[in-house]
Amino acid sequence: MNIHEYQAKAILREYGVPVSQGAAAFTPEDAVSVANELGGPVWVVKAQIHAGGRGKGTFKEPQAGEQGGVRLARSMEDVRNFADQMLGRTLVTHQTGPDGKTVQRLYIEEGASIARELYLSALVDRGSSRIAFICSTEGGVDIEKVAAETPEKILTLTIDPAAGYSPFHGRRIAFALGLQGDQVKQCVKLIGNLYRAFTEKDMSLLEINPLIVTEQGELRCLDAKVNFDDNALFRQSAVSNLRDIDEEDPAEVEASRHGLNYVKLDGNIGCMVNGAGLAMATMDIIKLYGAEPANFLDVGGGANKEQVMNAFKIILSDKAVEGILVNIFGGIMRCDIIAEGIIAAAKEMDIRVPLVVRLEGTNVEMGKQMLSDSGLAIIPADDLADAAQKIVAKVKEAA
Ligand code: ADP
Ligand code: MG
Q1: Of ligand 1's atoms, which has the minimum distance to the CA of residue 139?
Q2: By C-alpha distance, which of 18, 26, 14, 83 is closest to 222?
Q3: What are the extents of the domains in the chain?
Q4: Backbone angles phi, psi at 96, to 5 degrees
Q5: For position 300, what pLDDT does the model report?
Q6: Per-residue pLDDT tens for 163-209?
Q7: CA distance 177 to 180
């Protein structure tokens, strides 16, 4: 689960991490009253969306004088104007994809005087089975470019979970960041507090870009992006309450309401599968035959007719889908029930794309018979490879 920058900063503040003063705003009036309370003389108006790259982002249907989703305001009039310009608009950044995200919240923060912009993040590193800190002197808005072009400027340091955080970790990061004197002490404390926040709150990613050194020589987190481990949310009720459904993919939200496990992907072949392992295998074999899956969709072990219909609706709501592959192993779930669901869905919904169905398991012959008797344009397949080849060929043919 993701949260907004202002929510992440509130959590970090609880852990004694230095962040700027600020508050969320939902209307231009809110923005002005927050700015009044902060006092100024400069404020930053920041669009709150679950994506980075806001500063360099662009709004759809641009208006004159507009510059991205992070703006420096030098007067109350600026604060009101920027808030008015951003709210309700669609912001496109390199992380949102071409559709962008609608700005529904703002964060109004005191303006900081920046001497240096550094990069710092922490994540669960599967390779080392540890939490890794990543840092670089080249912070700011172009860290992806640094990683691609000058990877030697990025330091990774892992922390042994059994031993936990020690000040030497903080000192190594401080030296890698070129910090000196009191800043080293600040860094040791900062990394310790971030590590505590990361582990206690079950984060999976914490990215501070930029971590700044102010003109006064203080370290401060100027941006904060946090992801949490969904599997730990059951014990993180305060975190769960920060969920903003508006930021999530509507199809994924709809799917979870129906108990379907759905993740949207970039390809054009919609998949309906039961069981996560079979779903992964189906995505792999689609790739093997030269196409890309449009989604991961696990209808679960005991799906019924309604769930199969809901699954079709969700797959078909994705405009990128040019063909559907249904791959079901009838264990607990019987193939005739699945066939019934597919037939009902195909009759009720106008499925205009090729549909390949591979059934195996309990009552498979009955299921196959029902499909062929239905008179619907369903292409039967015998096994996984046959099914994948057929759907890939059909989609290529149609294109
Ligand atoms: P994003 O990474 O989504 O573009 P950031 O919060 O990192 O958003 O803001 C982009 C840039 O704007 C920062 O690298 C920093 O230079 C500047 N900035 C952000 N917040 C402030 C602030 N409170 N005061 C001064 N400059 C800021
Ligand atoms: Mg940033």
Answers
A1: 14
A2: 18
A3: 21-110, 114-241, 250-398
A4: -85, -20
A5: 80
A6: 999 999 999 999 999 999 999 999 999 999 999 999 999 999 999 99
A7: 9
pTM of the model: 0.83
Q: Which residue's CA is the closest to the ligand 1 atom numbered 23?
A: 111
Catalytic residues: 119, 207
Rg (alpha carbons) of the chain, rounded to whole number = 25
Q: Are strands 323-330 and 269-273 parallel, antiparallel or unpaired?
A: parallel
Contact 264, 307 (CB under 8 A): no
Cα–Cα distance, 271 to 294 (Å, whole number): 7
Closest ligand 1 atom to residue 141 Cα is: 14
Q: To 5 degrees, how large is the angle CA 130–CA 131–CA 135?
A: 130
Query: Of 354, 342, 347, 359, which Cα lies nearest the Cα of 397?
Result: 354
CB 6 within 8 A of CB 48: yes
Name the superfamily (CATH) of residues 21-110: ATP-grasp fold, A domain (3.30.1490.20)
- Can you name the CATH fold of 250-398? Rossmann fold (3.40.50)
- For ligand 1, mutation pick of 6, 19, 34, 44 (most atoms within 8 Å of CB): 44
